[in-house]
Amino acid sequence: MIRYMGLDVGDRTIGVAVSDLLGLTAQSLKTIKRASLDKDLEELKSIIEEKSVTVLVIGIPKNMNGSIGSQGEKVIGFSNYLKKRLKVEIVHWDERLTSKFADNLMLEGDVKRKKRKEKIDMMAAQNILQSYMDSKNI
After folding, report:
1. Which end of the chain is more exposed for a tag (fewer CB within 10 A), N or C?
2. Which family is this protein grouped under (predicted)?
3. How many domains does the chain divide into?
């Protein structure tokens, strides 16, 4: 059975989402406050073990023309760090506009600014993961 986990990696936080057991829907799980590479890894390993994750989908921020900018390079560097230390398949997925989409959804739901800030990363991770799974289920 394949279980997916999606990540929206930022400088200060990592949004985390996981798939249901059938791999059809993504649910936002949590936002990790980044402390150090080792602590980030420890927390991700814990979730991977607890949820029996087999595939990690990492959103790669791209410019609108498809090129990878400085933030994308940072995320790829973090992904390479994880590849050397985790025993799961790692997939990169285009995350253009996922945070904007998540923010718009919360605005429509009349979520207060402070709550939006707390939830935006895990909702972006959910969008990244759902779009990846949708592409696999066509």
Report:
1. C
2. Belongs to the YqgF HJR family.
3. 1
b/e 69-88 (16+ beta carbons within 10 angstroms → b): eeebeebbebbeebeeeeeb
Contacts (Cβ under 8 Å, ≥6 apart) of 102: 119, 120, 123, 124, 126, 127
- pTM to 2 decimal places: 0.84
Torsion (CA) 79, 85, 86, 91 in degrees, nearest 10: 20
* Residue-range definition of the domain harbouring residue 96: 4-136
Length of the chain counted residue by residue = 138
Q: What distance in Å separates the CA atoms of residue 95 and residue 123, rounded to the nearest whole number?
A: 12
Is the per-residue pLDDT at 126 higher than 80?
yes
71-121: pLDDT as tens digits: 999 999 999 999 999 999 999 998 865 555 545 554 555 555 555 566 778
In the chain, count H helices and then E strands: 4, 5
Amino acid letter for position 28: S
